[in-house]
Amino acid sequence: MSNSEEKAVGLLARFNGGNNGQGNGDGNRASSSPVLIPEEYARLHADIERASSPSRCFVVGVTSAVYGEGKTTVAMNLAGTIAQNSSQRVALVDGNLRSWDLQTRLNIPPCKGLVDVLEGAEDDMTNIIQKTELPNFTVVPAGRAAANPSRLARSPLFEEVMNALRMQNDFIIMDMAPTLPVADTRVLAKVLDGIVMVVRAGVTPREIVQRAIEAIGNDRVLGVVLNGTETAMPKFMQRYFS
Question: What does pTM read for this prediction?
Answer without folding.
Answer: 0.81
